[in-house]
Specification:
Elements: E1 2-6, H1 16-27, E2 31-32, H2 42-48, H3 53-66, E3 69-73, H4 79-90, E4 95-99, H5 109-112, E5 117-121, H6 125-138
Parallel strand pairs: 1-2, 1-3, 3-4, 4-5
Amino acid sequence: MDIFFSGSIRGGRDDVDLYAALIDRLEATDTVLTEHVGTTDIEAVEQEGGLTDGDIHEQDVAWLEQADVVVAEVTTPSLGVGYELGRAVAWEKPVHCLYRPESTHDLSAMIRGNDAVTVTEYDSLEEVEPELEDFLERHR
């Protein structure tokens, strides 16, 4: 199964290690099209590669279109993640958002209030793993 993993890049990289751990877990059984989200120096890599914002947009939208499901860590607010989730919902892709409620940021009603989006609140990676497994199995 092809998974589009979404997490904040320009909105803040405080959770990059968590993104990497989630991506590793997902890649144990499936293909993550956007594994670069879990890379600490992603913006430098994009810059060194000469990627423009337009290039990044085109590639991300292509991956999103290719994906069977979307998994997003939404604790750190991000305009890009919101954009990706909106497109995924419009394309009727299964979407699972992961949110840590101890965050200083409240989860948007546009995510929590959307019946097309599964939201899991969690405190640890171990706690969210069974929820992810169940989501992926339902959409195979």
